[in-house]
Amino acid sequence: MSIPRLERLWLMLGGAMLVAFLVVLLASALAMGNAPPSSMASVDPASVLIKGDYGSPGISHAGKTYHVHIAALTFAFVPNAITVPVGSKVIFHIAAKDVVHGFEIAGTDVNTMVIPGYQSEVTHTFSHKGRYLIVCNEYCGSGHHLMFATLIVA
Ligand code: CUA
User: pTM for this structure?
Assistant: First the structure.
């Protein structure tokens, strides 16, 4: 059985793409150290805003490192206004109370999904003063567009 020239070309192209993707994946994982999030802490969604780390979410700090616990729920972030000093390293810990939400700080590389049952963690150092918009970027219901908060770096 002979394969037409064009079909053979497309098969080779498909095979070459698979090899290229595998090389990129291996380089990313082995040479660049990229991996899925390792801190898979679990959080009982029923405890959010009731008890535990997310009982009354907010800011705590040790030296120049700030820990911000944030609860994500339809359709708000608690707390919805956060202030940190410029130059501080901020570790955001976010837990969802109900459905899947997103946590993105516009103008930065902070962007994570917030999945009920798990704690999402993102670290960022804010080197510029300003007012940053925090938005939910996963569609979570009819009030999704109203789900935002403010971060002030002073
Ligand atoms: Cu929460 Cu969209």
Answer: 0.76
